[in-house]
Amino acid sequence: QVQLVESGGGLVQAGGSLRLPCAANGSISVDNSMAWYRQAPGKVQELVAAISSDGTKWHADSVKGRFTISRDSAKNTLYLQMSSLKPEDSGTYYCAFPLDAEWGPGTQVTVSP
User: Which helix or strand (DSSP H or E) is residue 47 part of?
Assistant: First the structure.
């Protein structure tokens, strides 16, 4: 059974914005430490952003100032707000509960020049 489901991906032009929700099911609570990863074709998976159980946030240098990780505890949903998108942001985005090795199936983001 899928415990994490990402959505919101799609095609967007450079400079545009997307908001990716990750709905958590089952026993996973987004109040735990959670993370977003991405992977471009032929490249290694990259940690994009993380949020700890106490609310501390971390963003990779490549997305700092453009992406924001957040969560809505009432909806049990993790979010990645992306703005000022660049073609190099293209890839499959995954949300994860790393301490339990749980990953969503991913959502595709394509940024056209």
Answer: strand 46-51
**Residue range 8-48, pLDDT digits in tens:** 999 999 999 999 999 998 789 999 999 999 999 899 999 99
Q: pLDDT > 70: what percent of the chain? A: 100
- Torsion of the alpha carbons at 46, 51, 56 and 58, rounded to the nearest 10: 20
> Residue 77 in 3-state DSSP?
strand
Residues 6+ apart with CB under 8 A from 22: 4, 5, 6, 7, 30, 34, 36, 77, 78, 79, 80, 95, 104
pLDDT at 20: 98
Burial zone of 66 (CB within 10 Å; 0-12 exposed, 13-18 middle, 19+ buried): middle
In angstroms, the CA 47 to CA 82 distance is 15
Report residue 2: phi and psi, to 5°: -70, 125
d(CA 14, CA 60): 19
